[in-house]
Design a protein that fits this description.
Layout (H helix, E strand, L loop, with lengths): L4 E2 L5 E5 L2 H4 L12 H6 L21 H11 L3 E5 L2 H4 L11 H16 L3 E5 L7 H7 L7 H16 L5 E6 L1 H9 L14 H28 L2 E7 L2 E4 L5 H24 L4 H13 L12 H7 L6 E4 L3 E6 L10 H4 L2 E4 L17 H13 L5 E6 L13 H19 L4 E7 L18 E3 L8 E3 L1 H12 L1 E2 L2 H60 L2
Parallel strand pairs: 2-3, 2-12, 3-4, 4-5, 5-6, 6-8, 7-9, 8-11, 11-12
Antiparallel strand pairs: 1-15, 9-10, 13-14
C-alpha cells in the first residue's frame, strides 16, 4: 500500500550521470583514449554500431545542464571524472592534462555557485586504454597503485570543494560484463576467473584509496569516501522452501555481498567461498577460482567506507537450480540458481528492467541487518524506455519513481539510515552496449539534431514536486502533481515536434539539395557531351 508522509529534514535529492555516457569530446583537448572509446569503435560491439564519441556533448554544455539542475531544484548532482581526460595514459608520472583538470574545476565551481553539491565518482568504467593494453586492466594488481595515484590527484585538485567521493560505480558490471561475458569494454571473456580477479583488485584498490584519503586528506578536507554498489533484490519463489530462501540469499551475496561483505565484514561471503571453492575442486583445480585475502588484507579492507552508495533498478524471483558439472566454468553457473519474473510486473522498457518497488525496501533492510545499518545514499535508481519515437509523457517513469521513492520512505520508518536519493539519470545518454536505444533520462535529447537540445519529460515536473514537498504529503496533492505533469508534457511535445520538423528541413537543405544540385550538374555534363558528339 502507498504510504503518505515526508522525508526527514535535510534529506538530499539529486540526479546523476557519468562521464563517458554524456561528455563526448572523446579525443579533444588532450584527452587520452579509454577502453570504451576503443571498444565502441569496433564493429558489432554496440547496437547499431553507435559510439559515445559525442554522446550528449556534455563537455560543451555544462552551463546548459546546470540550468536543468536548477530547474529541478536538486540538492546534489552525481557525476564521474574521466580518468583519461585528466591523465591521458592513466599513469601520473607520464602526463597530466591541465585542460581536463580545468574542465572539472569549472564544472565543480559552477555547481557550487548554483548551490548544488557535487558527489563525484572516480570511476564509472572508462579505464585509460593504455593501462588495458600494457597491463591487462583490472586483471593486473598494478592497477591498485595507478588508480591510487589518480585518486590522490583528484583529492589534491578538487578535494577542497568536493566532500563526497565514490571510488567505484557499480564494480559488479565492470568485473562481470567487462571480464566474464565481454558485453562491456574491454570485451574479455575470461570465463570463471576473469570477473573474480577483476573484483579482487577493485576491492583492494578501493581500500587503498580510502586509507590514502584517511591519512593524507581527511583532516584538512573533512570529506567522505564510499563506494557505489548496484544490486537487484532476490525474492524466493516459495518463501516456505528453505532451498529457495537459500538461493535468494545466494543471489544477493553473489551481487551485493561480493563487494560489500569484504568492506563491511572483512571477507567474501561464506556462501561464495563455499560454492566457488566446491565447483573449482570438482574441476580438478588446486585452488579456488575465487581469490583469497590474507589476514592483513582483511583487516586493511574492513571498515573502508564512510557511506554506502546503492544503485537499484529491479527484482527477480529466485529458485534453486543445480547446474551439471561443466569443464567450462562461469560466474553464472557458480551460484546454482535460476531467476524468474512475474509476467504481471510492469516492464515499460527493456526486458531486464521490471518495476517492482517492494524489492527496494527489502534490499535496504537487508543492508541494515547485514552491514550494521551503514549510512546509505541511493546513487542510481530509474527506468528506461526503448521506444523509437520521442515519448515525453513518460507516465511509466512517474509511476516507477513514485513507487520506488515511497519504498525508501517506508525503509526510513523501518530504521534504515538513508540520507539521500539520486534519480538516474538527468539526460538520455549513451547506454553502453545498448547505444542510444535505451533512454533513462528525465530530459529527452534529440540526438539527430546537431545541437543536441534537451526537452523535459513529464517526470521532470513530477520529480520536482516530490523534491519541493520533501516526499508525499497527502493523496489529493500527489494526484494533482500527476495531472499537472501530464499537461506540461503535452505542450513540450508540440515544441519538440516543431523542432524536429525544422531539423528535418535543415537536413534536407544540407544533404538533399547539394546532392540534387550535383546530380543536375552531372546530367548537364552528360547531355552536353552527347550534344557535342552528335554535332561533331
Amino acid at each position: 500500500s502507498f504510504y503518505y508522509g515526508t522525508f526527514p529534514a535535510g534529506f538530499l535529492w539529486g540526479v546523476g550521470s557519468s562521464a563517458y555516457q554524456t561528455e563526448g569530446a572523446w579525443d579533444k583537448d588532450g584527452k587520452g583514449p579509454s577502453i570504451w572509446d576503443v571498444f565502441t569503435h569496433r564493429k558489432g560491439k554496440v547496437v547499431r554500431n553507435e559510439t559515445g564519441d559525442s554522446a550528449c556533448d556534455g563537455y560543451y554544455k555544462v552551463k546548459d545542464d546546470i540550468q536543468l539542475l536548477k530547474e529541478l531544484k536538486v540538492n546534489h548532482y552525481l557525476l564521474s571524472i574521466s580518468w583519461p581526460r585528466i591523465m591521458p595514459t592513466g599513469i601520473k608520472a607520464e602526463q597530466l592534462n591541465e585542460k581536463g583538470i580545468q574542465f572539472y574545476n569549472d564544472t565543480i565551481n559552477s555547481l557550487l555557485e548554483n548551490n548544488i553539491t557535487p558527489i563525484v565518482s572516480l570511476y564509472h568504467w572508462d579505464l585509460p586504454q593504455v593501462l588495458q593494453e600494457k597491463y591487462g586492466g583490472w586483471q593486473n594488481i598494478s592497477m591498485i597503485n595507478y588508480f591510487n595515484d589518480y585518486a590522490n590527484l583528484c583529492f589534491e585538485k578538487f578535494g577542497d570543494r568536493v566532500k563526497h567521493w565514490i571510488t567505484f560505480s557499480n564494480p559488479w558490471a565492470v568485473a562481470e560484463k567487462g571480464y566474464e561475458t565481454g558485453e562491456h569494454a574491454p570485451g574479455l571473456k575470461l570465463g570463471g576467473c576473469g570477473a573474480y580477479k577483476a573484483a579482487h583488485h577493485i576491492i583492494k584498490t578501493h581500500a587503498k584509496v580510502w586509507h590514502s584519503y584517511n591519512t593524507t586528506w581527511r583532516r584538512e578536507q573533512r570529506g567522505m569516501v564510499g563506494i557505489s554498489l548496484t544490486s537487484g533484490w532476490g525474492e524466493p519463489v516459495d518463501p516456505h522452501s528453505q532451498t529457495d530462501r537459500d538461493a535468494a540469499e545466494r543471489y544477493i551475496q553473489f551481487h551485493l555481498g561480493w563487494f560489500a561483505n569484504p568492506i563491511y565484514r572483512g571477507d567474501y561471503p561464506e556462501v561464495m567461498k563455499n560454492y566457488v571453492g566446491r565447483k573449482s575442486a570438482q574441476q580438478g583445480l588446486g585452488t579456488s577460482r575465487l581469490p583469497t585475502f590474507s589476514v592483513q588484507e582483511k583487516t586493511y579492507i574492513k571498515g573502508t567506507s564512510d557511506f554506502l552508495g546503492i544503485g537499484h533498478f529491479t527484482t527477480r524471483y529466485v529458485l534453486q537450480k543445480n547446474f551439471p558439472f561443466l569443464q567450462v566454468s562461469s560466474y553464472h553457473t557458480d551460484h546454482d540458481l535460476a531467476e524468474l519474473v512475474d509476467p504481471n510486473w510492469p516492464a515499460p522498457g527493456p526486458k531486464w528492467l521490471y518495476s517492482v518497488p517492494w524489492g527496494f525496501r527489502r534490499l535496504l533492510n537487508f543492508i541494515k541487518t547485514q552491514y550494521g545499518n551503514p549510512l546509505i545514499y541511493v546513487t542510481e535508481n530509474g527506468v528506461s524506455e526503448t521506444l523509437q519515437c520521442p515519448q515525453l509523457c513518460d507516465e511509466w517513469r512517474i509511476q516507477y519513481l513514485k513507487g520506488y521513492i515511497n519504498e525508501i520512505l517506508k525503509a526510513l520508518n523501518d530504521g534504515v539510515n538513508v540520507k539521500g536519493y539520486t534519480a538516474w539519470s538527468l539526460l538520455d545518454k549513451f547506454e553502453w552496449n545498448k547505444g542510444f536505444s535505451e533512454r533513462f533520462g528525465l530530459y529527452h535529447i534529440d540526438f539527430k539534431n546537431k545541437n543536441k537540445p534537451r526537452y523535459p519529460k513529464a517526470s521532470v515536473d513530477y520529480y520536482k514536486k516530490i523534491i519541493s514537498a520533501n516526499g508525499f504529503p497527502n493523496q489529493r496533492e500527489v494526484e494533482n502533481w500527476h495531472q499537472k505533469a501530464m499537461d506540461t508534457c503535452s505542450a513540450t511535445h508540440q515544441h519538440l515536434a516543431a523542432d524536429s520538423l525544422i531539423t528535418h528541413m535543415e537536413m534536407v537543405t544540407e544533404i538533399v539539395l547539394p546532392t540534387v544540385f550535383t546530380l543536375c550538374i552531372l546530367i548537364s555534363i552528360v547531355l552536353l557531351i552527347f550534344y557535342l558528339r552528335n554535332h561533331s
